[in-house]
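Please check what follows.
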Amino acid sequence: NPNPNPNPNPNPKLKADGGAGNEVVGWWSRAKGPGSLCFMIGMILMGGAVFSGIEGWGYRESCWFCVTVMTTVGYGTPAPSDPGAKAFLVLWALVTVPTTPFCLNYSSNWIINTIAHTVLGVDAQGPRNHRLRLGVAVSVTVLHLLLSGGLMFHVLEDGWGYGDSVYFSFITLTTIGLGDMVPKTEAGQIWNMFYVLVGLGMVTIVIEEIMRLWPTLQFGYTGPGSCTRCTEDSHHCHDSLQCHDSLQVKTVRA
């Protein structure tokens, strides 16, 4: 009798292991966004409790200080003076400063995908949707700067004009953190924590998507070429964005 399966799997365990690996990858893909957000919030709350206890600051102000440190905005106000607080700051920053960019990126990707799915009804996670993700991220960043930043700080902080509030919001999102303008009110400091975490996360998405799209802008339309993944001419490859996204592009002579 002919073998119904001409290419049987000689190692069934390999398939099972691959399935388990895919499940782990799928779980991490779903959990890294909200998980990263929870990690950052936990580190902020823990750091706030320590600085509040050592320095005698208010808990809210201590949490706000932690956000400015872990995002490297660093307004310079307040600053620890106790040797114990300074030592803890060094250790705490060694954990939070390197991990915060990744956590912001993961959590912001989760936000972008949720917005695209809920508002636009599309899946922004696919490799061919980088332009969509870039458009959503840029739009959210600009609105965040002008409305969540400029308008809200103008309302929450006494004596801040809209122009000054936009200026402060830009200085914050670029992590310049000059310290010439710092929120003084309780509402302003609380809102600043939200503004920094969401805004910097969106900035990481914009940079990430520009870097992913750059190979297509650099190589995709400059002349006859072939993609090493699908072997199609770059002008006729219907999935060129995915191919270019892998950075596997080569140019050939006409």
The CA atoms of residues 143 and 149 lie 9 Å apart. The first strand starts at residue 225 and ends at 227. The longest helix spans residues 12-55. The chain is about 70% helix and 0% strand.
